[in-house]
Design a protein that fits this description.
This protein has about 200 residues and is of the alpha+beta class. About 50% of the residues lie in helices and about 10% in strands. It has eight helices and four strands, in the order H-H-H-E-H-E-H-E-E-H-H-H. Strand 1, helix 4 and strand 2 form a beta-alpha-beta unit. Helix 2 packs parallel to helix 4.
Length: about 200
């Protein structure tokens, strides 16, 4: 597969992605194919979460030290939507990690605008996001993927669904964000430390 995924529609960096989500929200709309009051409300909360992460979340010394030694030129593509709860928790951290790597270019693309790409990177048969795909920018080698959430939180999600298979979406979302708050982005940072070691 080519390192630079050919997208028919627009690519964003993290800042322009947030601006896109905000501008649509200001118009009473959300990204993606489906429009609803529920998704609009979730998008509003996600905008607040991203701002909070941008202001308060910090990368670990171990991750920063590893990033400072990284010389491989990479292109990271992240599939996401503005209403995605996991995206609001993980995209800001991924952006911070990418920004700490001078040789990495992070390109954000919307899932529903790029189904042919999304369908190459399904999770258990589903279009789960956020999904990050890393490429070597010089050799076009696909290095690996990450997503849609840290393994530690994914395990909690699966265990919770086993116990409460018919849970309300609001109850699930509440528990999900409690897990993220308690985790303080440590799990995703640890996973990216291992990924960067493999990708160096």
């Amino acid at each position: 597969m080519e390192a630079h995924i050919n997208t028919e529609l627009e690519e964003y960096n993290y800042e322009t992605y947030k601006s896109k989500v905000q501008s649509l929200f200001d118009e009473g709309k959300v990204t993606g194919d489906t429009q609803s009051e529920s998704l609009l409300n979730t998008t509003e909360m996600n905008l607040h979460r991203m701002k909070r992460h941008d202001a308060k979340s910090e990368l670990s010394e171990e991750l920063l030290a590893l990033a400072s030694k990284s010389t491989r030129k990479m292109t990271w593509y992240m599939l996401i939507e503005g209403w995605c709860a996991d995206g609001s928790q993980n995209a800001p951290i991924i952006a911070k990690i990418a920004n700490s790597l001078p040789e990495v270019s992070l390109k954000i693309i919307l899932r529903d605008e790029n189904p042919e790409i999304m369908d190459r990177y399904l999770t258990n048969g589903g279009r789960a996001i956020p999904k990050l795909i890393a490429f070597d920018a010089e050799t076009n080698e696909e290095l690996g993927t990450w997503g849609p959430r840290p393994t530690a939180i994914q395990e909690k999600v699966l265990a919770y669904k086993d116990v409460y298979p018919e849970m309300e979406k609001t109850d699930f979302a509440l528990n999900l964000h409690k897990w993220y708050a308690k985790d303080k982005s440590l799990s995703i940072q640890k996973e990216f430390i291992e990924l960067l070691k493999n990708w160096k």
